[in-house]
Amino acid sequence: MRCFGNTQKKLAQREPGDRPYYEGEQILHIAVSDICPDPLQARKIFELDKLRELSDSIAEFGVLTPLIVRRVGNSYQLIAGERRLRAAVMAGFTHVPCVLNRADSEKAAYISLIENLQRCDLDFFEEASGLARLISDYGITQEEAARRIGKSQSAVANKLRLLKFDGDVISKIREAGLSERHARALLRLPTAEAARAAVAYIVDKGLSVADTERYVDSLLAPPAAAPKGKRTPLIRDVRLFINTVQHAFKTITAGGIRAELEQTESPDGITLVIHLPKKG
Fold first, then answer.
1. At the top level of CATH, which class does the domain 27-122 belong to?
2. 237-249 b/e with 16+ CB inside 10 Å = b?
3. Which residues pair with 261 in a beta bridge?
4. What is 136-200 written as a DSSP string?
5. Average per-residue pLDDT in the chain?
6. Can you give the residue ranges of every domain in the chain?
7. Alpha-carbon distance 243 to 261, whole Å?
8. Which of the following is catalytic: 82, 106, 143, 213?
9. What is d(CA 140, CA 150) in angstroms, rounded to the nearest whole number?
10. Is the pLDDT of residue 84 over 60?
């Protein structure tokens, strides 16, 4: 089991400083090299910029809230406080204040999971994975999980739906820095390929959440029906054409032209001929 502080780089020695007051619990100052991370930690991504900010604060004020650990053999396993521990190591601390929890491994894992899910800075995919573990590992309902972490049942259900994405799509959404609402809009797409293509388009165009929702709507809309070509009506009564020609002949003669109209009929059809003089 790899513990914190197992590194070739020697950390600067620093006194633990004033011991914080933690009501009802004994504070132990434990070497960071003796503390091992929780293998079931819900948080998988630790943003370096935010860790540096926390590290700067710890360097100035110390670790104000003790970590929670449990003893495992000759070392300690972290139950809660991994960000504080990482930041303390960055700040050069060799020891950190801890509260010793005597819970067994199952209870410790449960406490760690609940503590992480109650935080507001978890990645939304990490939170979804943690919720899924909480429900499956401890046999509780979505409603009970929601009560224990202080969220609504619908919020828990929406989080769990994010796990429908495959790992590649999740990675692309994370890399693109898209929000949870972007991700929820993309859930409506039918395939992983469609989601990947949509992520690329959203990033390229810099789409907002509202724009993304409209874009997804357009992808899901049925194709527009091809416009019907204008059809020429079929006229099967030849008398209409004969009347048209006769009307044209009357127009010609009404204009003062001495024209002649010849109409002959045969078994095969009707012949109409208009004779026009070269000179009016």
1. alpha beta
2. eeeeeeeeeeeeb
3. 274
4. HHHT--HHHHHHHHT--HHHHHHHHHGGGS-HHHHHHHHHHT--HHHHHHHTTSSSHHHHHHHHH
5. 79
6. 27-122, 165-218, 239-275
7. 12
8. 82
9. 15
10. yes
Distance in angstroms (rounded) separating the CA atoms of residues 173 and 158 = 17
Nearest CA among 68, 64, 60, 65 for reference residue 92:
60
Contact (CB, 8 A) for 132 and 163? yes
Residues forming beta bridges with residue 273, ordered by sequence position? 262
Residue pointed to by tokens 């010609």? 252
- To the nearest whole percent, how much of the chain has pLDDT over 90? 27
Which residue type does 45 have? I
- The mean pLDDT of 163-168, rounded to a whole number, is 91
Residue 186 predicted with pLDDT over 90 = yes
- Tell the residue number behind the tokens 């949509």, with chain if given: 198
CA distances from 58 to 17, 85, 122, 179 (A): 11, 10, 20, 29
pLDDT per position as a tens digit, 5-15: 543 333 333 33
pLDDT bucket at 233, cuts 50 / 70 / 90: low
Question: Which amino acid, residue 264?
Answer: T
> Per the structure block, which two tokens stand in for 234?
């079929």
Structure letter (DSSP) for residue 41? -
Find where tokens 């409209």 sit. 214
57 pLDDT above the threshold of 50: yes
d(CA 134, CA 246): 91
115 among known catalytic residues: no
